[in-house]
Design goal:
- By secondary structure, the protein is an alpha/beta fold.
- The protein folds into two domains: 12-189 and 383-404, Rossmann fold; 198-371, Glycogen Phosphorylase B (Rossmann fold).
- Helices cover 47% and strands 11% of the residues.
- The chain contains 18 helices and ten strands.
- Strand 3 (156-159), helix 8 and strand 4 (180-183) form a beta-alpha-beta unit.
- Keywords: Glycosyltransferase, Transferase.
């Protein structure tokens, strides 16, 4: 299934060189077609979706036979793809869309059970560990999927990151798996001017420079009633302008006004904009009025924030996000919101972190570091992608030579 969001991300410049081919997932009673994507997927269905991917592998094999490509690039959810490619004498490379921090941490725990991760700044708080144990997200197969996927990659692995922030974790990951890790850069999509959502940008245009925060928790996590309450109260207490994207699982019909504290939207109407569903995140982050990002610390959001020089107010929820938040603090471009020992959010802590990052003097170092890192990323330009291209050319050339020799 190809969500419209994927098609819309292909700019006109590349529309002729990219061909999208649908991989149809099997029809399952618990996974109707509108759930054939992680976007808007209820958390408890994640393992079902991964199983559906695996059930679609015969269809994937047919696609490869028809296309006969030079190379297959696959991600964590398709650990079966390289075996199919190998049977057709097609080289394959894994592309990890999470960071080196998360990947090295996970593989360390799998390979060296009981040993401390060698970088003490990176860890899961106790409440997050307990939450993962109770969660349906880790279905017991993720360990096997990750190990299988990295082991089957042809000599190298591509990673969505850059050495400036994850150099030591990239090197440790390479030691763990015995393969070369090639960082591809942050891969922030080129901004496309669009007519939709102009009211959001116009709202920002009226605000002072670096005076507003963007609040979003990604498309794969949905705040509980209690979390919505504390985030709303925290934004209200902060006295800072904000744009808040509120999402609900696909199929749930909930009015935003009913989900938020009574009277909240009316009380903050002069400095707060609540948007349901989706907002142009990259355009908002690059806007001069945006001075902070209240983020779940999904890896793509972290990459975008660093690229555009926006400091992060970290509110990680699950999966790799707690580790990404620790990295954000280690790099110095953000502040994690303090929680109670049981993980409960507190409005006062949210407000305090927002004010520190956006306006207070003790947050100046964070704001400066975010600007400096953004400038370094901009100066580096396309160097990482050039390196990726060279690796791919060499890999495909070697595969062809071996094929001709055999």
């Amino acid at each position: 299934m190809l969500p419209c969001s994927i098609k819309n991300k292909i700019t006109e410049e590349y529309s002729l060189s990219i061909q999208l081919i649908e991989l149809h997932l099997p029809s399952l009673p618990e996974l109707p077609p509108h759930y054939h994507t992680t976007k808007g997927l209820p958390t408890h269905l994640m393992s079902t979706l991964k199983n559906a991917y695996e059930m679609a592998s015969p269809s994937f094999a047919d696609i490869l036979k028809n296309l006969n490509p030079d190379l297959v690039i696959y991600d964590f959810n398709q650990p079966w793809a390289p075996a199919i490619a190998s049977s057709l004498k097609i080289p394959s490379v894994q592309f990890l869309t999470c960071g080196a921090v998360m990947t090295s941490f996970a593989l360390h725990m799998f390979k060296h059970r009981g040993e401390e991760f060698p970088f003490p700044a990176i860890y899961y708080p106790d409440f997050q560990i307990q939450k993962m144990r109770q969660s349906h997200v880790n279905d017991g197969k993720d360990k096997d999927r990750l190990i299988e996927a990295v082991e089957r990659s042809c000599n190298i692995i591509f990673l969505k990151t850059f050495r400036k922030i994850e150099g030591k974790y990239i090197d440790y990951l390479s030691v763990l798996i015995g393969k070369k890790i090639v960082p591809v850069g942050p891969l922030v999509q080129e901004l496309v001017e669009e007519d939709e959502h102009t009211e959001i940008i116009q709202w920002l245009d009226k605000k002072d420079e670096s005076s507003s925060v963007f609040v979003s928790f990604g498309s794969e996590y949905f705040l509980s009633k209690e979390e919505l309450e504390e985030v709303a109260r925290g934004l209200e207490l902060s006295k800072i302008n904000f744009i808040w994207v509120v999402r609900f699982p696909v199929g749930e019909r909930i009015r935003v006004e009913e989900a938020l504290p009574e009277g909240f939207v009316e009380r903050v109407k002069d400095r707060g904009l609540v948007v349901e569903g989706w907002a142009p995140q990259a355009r908002i982050l690059r806007h001069s009025s945006t001075g902070g990002f209240v983020s779940h610390c999904g890896w793509s959001s972290v990459m975008e924030s660093m690229t555009f020089g926006v400091p992060i107010i970290a509110l990680p929820m699950h999966l790799d996000q707690p580790l990404n938040a620790k990295l954000v603090e280690e790099v110095g471009v953000g502040v994690e919101v303090m929680r109670r020992n049981n993980g409960r959010l507190e409005r006062e802590e949210i407000a305090q972190a927002i004010r520190k990052v956006v306006v207070e003097k003790n947050g100046e170092d964070v704001r400066t570091k975010a600007r400096e890192l953004s400038e370094e990323i901009r100066m580096k330009g396309e160097q990482d992608i050039d390196g990726v291209a060279e690796e791919l050319i060499q890999l495909v050339g070697t595969a062809r030579s071996n094929s001709n020799f055999n």
